[in-house]
Amino acid sequence: QVQLVESGGGLVQAGGSLRLSCAASGRTFSMYDMGWFRQAPGKEREFVARISWIDRSTYYADSVKGRFTISRDNAKNTLYLQMNSLKPEDTAMYYCARRGTTGTYDSWGQGTQVTVSS
């Protein structure tokens, strides 16, 4: 198992930016796809973005495409989510997760809260 710890959340005005980080333990971080998810109060958890381990291909939910950028630094065992042009509807708890070899996400962080005021 890997331990994942998110940070970087906070309160920001609409139109602002935040950069989330996810620090991973262990030496196998570079060998897995990693993703970001979010969950707003009263809503189901939803996919935000994913980055491939093999070629760093990226995938985004339509709702964040063009505004959010996922990246990774394998030397630092860290995953990032740069969020620009934030909207109130981006308010949620944001989680990073490791995508296992079966395609399911098998390790999750505790989350970091992002609140966007209008």
Describe this structure in words.
There is one protein chain. By secondary structure, this protein is an all-beta fold. It has no helices and eleven strands. The chain has strands at 4-7, 10-13, 18-24, 33-39, 46-51, 58-60, 68-73, 78-83, 92-99, 105-108, 112-117. The strands form two sheets. Strands 2, 4, 5, 6, 9, 10 and 11 form a seven-stranded mixed β-sheet that branches. Strands 1-3-8-7 form a four-stranded antiparallel β-sheet, with no helix packed on it. Strand 5 (46-51) and strand 6 form a beta hairpin. It is globular.
Order of helices and strands: EEEEEEEEEEE
Q: What's the alpha carbon Rg, rounded to whole Å?
A: 13 Å
- Measured between the Cα atoms of the first and last residue, the distance is 39 Å
Number of strands: 11
The main sheet comes to:
7 strands, mixed
**H/I helix tally:** 0
Salient structural properties:
about 120 residues, mainly beta, seven-stranded mixed β-sheet, four-stranded antiparallel β-sheet, 11 strands, about 50% strand
Please write out the topology.
Blueprint: E1 4-7, E2 10-13, E3 18-24, E4 33-39, E5 46-51, E6 58-60, E7 68-73, E8 78-83, E9 92-99, E10 105-108, E11 112-117
Parallel strand pairs: 2-11
Antiparallel strand pairs: 1-3, 3-8, 4-5, 4-9, 5-6, 7-8, 9-10, 9-11
Describe the structure in brief.
The protein has 118 residues and is mainly β. It contains no helices and 11 strands.
